Amino acid sequence: MAKERWASRIGLVLAMAGNAVGLGNFLRFPAQAAKYGGGAFLIPYIVALLVVGLPLIWVEWAMGRYGGQKGHHSAPGIFQSFSSNGIWKYFGVMGLWSCLVIAAYYLYIESWCLAYAGYSAIGGFSGYTPADVEAFFSKLTGETPNQLFAISPFGMIMFAICILINIFVLSRGLAKGIELVSKIGMPTLIIFAAILAVRGLLIAPPVEGQAPTFFTDQHAKASPFEGLNYLWEPRFGELGDPAVWLAAAGQIFFTLSIGMGSIHCYSSYLRAKDDVALTGATAAWTNEFCEVILGGTILIPIAVAYLGLEAVRGYTQGGSGFGLGFMVFPTLFNNWGWFAPVAGFFWFGLLFFAAITSSLAMGQPIMAFLQQEFGQSRTASALSFGVLLLPLAIPVAVLSQATFFDEFDYWAGTVMLVVFALGESILFAWVFGMKNAWEEITRGAELWVPPIFYFVIKYVTPLFLLAILAAYVFKPAADWKTYIEAAVQGKPAPAWEWAGDGLIGKLMHKDLEATRNRVSSDPQLDPAQRTAALEHLENVETWRNVDRLMMLGVYVFFCVLVYVAWSRRRAQGRA
Amino acid sequence: MTPSAWIFMGSMWALIIFCSVYCFYKLLTSPRRLDLDVEMQEVIEYQTLPEPPKAAK
Question: Is B12 on the interface with A (CB under 8 A)?
């Protein structure tokens, strides 16, 4: 089998940046920044980039390159190459597991972007109101209130097309597949985003007593700069709230695609003397450019210009820009006349490119594992990835998003990433040894890595990750700020309740319990509606338990594969 | 926009653009050129190695 290799460094950088740049850059970041302190959010954000983001980028690149020299291209083997203790390869299984589980729902979102881009391009959203777009979304996903099954032939066809596109690109290999798509997709994405950002900032609301100019837009309610102001005006008082720091750390963590095993896989195709410091930093800063500069200049300013500040405040209250981006944006573009279909195509096209460059990075580690340990060809391993994906993707597509979709996102897309990153930072800095680790990071480096990172990687990064994990595990329903203020002021703290989105609360289905209580006491519901809603919640709980067993089963399945692979290695004298 | 919003946005943009441009500049001007076949580079490095000293007669 021909050895896989990147064709060029720029291709590798764009592939890595493409892996990092995702939907979160354009939808989640602006909403998070607006919600948590405006411009002041960028202070913990940059701190988190320096103590968690960049260090972990270098750790993952260096680990991947080191494992690649030992002939490993996926997390189990790469992790095992740092220690003689056999347990690490089973921990590394998380790098395969996360990729598969996240791909199952991420590809579904990717298919929405594709459908929206196509529909925008043919002018389908022309004259739509937000309610019409919502109806389009329901048609695409098949979601109806209080229904367990959410079957949409249209949505499933789009999903299948997306899976096939990914399998096709993956089967073409690193240079002719992933690298080529990244070389086309990343510049296209940046151009689309830049055009939308400039067009958005040119929106000028009519001013009383002044004649309209070329840029005056009769539909605009406010200046887009009011939106920028909402995003960037620092609210320093909020920096005292631990939730702001956690949100910033979480955003950095998820935006860089750390803790998934995909960076390890990509960098494992480097040579021993290849640089990781400069290439890794370039990919990370490209992601920041797309997130802070492009992502921060599209969603909120355009939305504020047409909807007004108060409406946008309501949309971003949950810290997600999904509703704005998918439900409202297509209607806002309608104000741009002939440019509306183009703008819609650019917006959803850039989201599609952001998504596909990330989803490809989830398939490659699994393919690399199957090729290396079970001798599969590129095409066979790409097809195997598709086959492994199906049992997880089908329930995502046919059941309510409250079941598999949300659970995959929480466990694989949120919690396990932190667990994986904590494990790798301990393995690299403490088990392998910080002296060796530092040599790995700086070997062949074309960028001076400040020595302070020696201590940051050894002490600060693991502690920071531990704090993030602890915050997920022990999350109270009341804000942490409430408990801190009560302790400082000597007042009695509120009774402890687990938060529905904390790990323990989630395990106990506290989020469903809260919804159940709300439904039970809602005076606007008639008895039939209440019964239907409560029955639906029961179904959701049952299927969430099924989903958890399934995720556990997938982990065990990968562990068995790793066990078989290493038994064969031992038998062949390769272990 | 308020002056503090301008200052925050300007400084963040400046930091990110500076770091991105600096990294790309270093990458593009690196002696390990882009799109250069690494095997070929290794051959060039090998060919330009100094000759081993000849043994004294």
Answer: yes
